[in-house]
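Table S2 (text version). Query chain:
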Amino acid sequence: MSVLSTDLEVAPECQVPRLDFELTPGCDHRCAHCYNVWTARDDDAQAGYDTGGQLSTPELLALMDKAVTQSGARHITITGGEPLLRKDAIEIIARACQLVDSVHLITNGSHVPAAAAAALASAGLRSAQLTLLSADRARHDRLKGAVCFDDTVRAAVELVDAGVPVQVCFVAMRENCDDFEGVLELCLALGVRSLSYNRMSPTGGAIHHIARLMPTPEQVERNLDVAERLGRAWGISVGTAMPIPPCLIRHERYTWVRFGFCSTGTSSPNIVIDAAGNVRSCNLASGVMGNLVRQDWAEIYRVPYQRVFRRNVPEMCRGCAYERSCQGGCKESGYATFGSHTHVEPFIYLAQHPEWRDAVAGAITQDEVVPMERLRRRGPPKPAVAPEAP
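Corresponding structure-token output:
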């Protein structure tokens, strides 16, 4: 139950229904598909994100209070990095649960023993998301860059036992698309009734794994066929968080799957606030719209980035029946990979130019493993620059 009034004086044009808080940039997994923008390299388009200046517990709690009060948000998602690496994570989550109607936790599952699951339930956590990339332990751990399969399964069991509903996230990649049915079956066995299907959408350091990991539309389509058949039969809801362009896969074929598109500039944007108070338009965006420690919400939200971003789409998408909803897929991924928000994003581009999978290594260094150096303090945060007009 919220401790704040629901009749807040929030300017209608600045009100948002939800906020994401990145509690820390730190993580003890090394996922090749990780979209965290601070994993970008110095010569990448998203280079230079500053991970310094992390707020103390009282400062972060005050920031959260300010964000909710000034934005009118009624839902909070807690994410990272790995949020449970912060020693004060449960205290912060408990405060979030007091401020808004619902709180969702995204965690890698390696830090959820029974006591932590019970504490999260007691705090009022509404739901938690865990990533399962395969029902095969070895393949899951290889793609996650950590020995963590057993931890993830155990976390699901502990959370469900504690009364916290679990959602599984499956990131579809070239190397694990054939494992999707096994993951759905594992969800059924674990009592998980919700799955977020995310095809790889490279930002941050993930652009260095496109050649190896980006799935084909045919692979994604086969997964959606499985979701439609088994999700319905087993009562497991399936939704897509990363956009799947209708020009590649016809959505109307799937009545069980809920398709989502980019929310930037809509009435329900996925605004992100990091642990230093920097505000971005979404988790995959590297440009900073402002800092909520030093500025008020209305000043930040009125920055024109979101409006200009919404208006600009790749040239090939103009006039398409889905132009306003699809927006050309994930434009932040297009920026991270090609340096332009109006460039066709890599999932579509690779479908149009299959030969690019071999050629991409010449333009962007492609890795077989994730480098150990994932987190460095950079310079001042890069401001959010409005996408170029076509």
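Notes on Table S2: The chain has a mean pLDDT of 92. Residues 33 and 257 are 23 Å apart (CA to CA).
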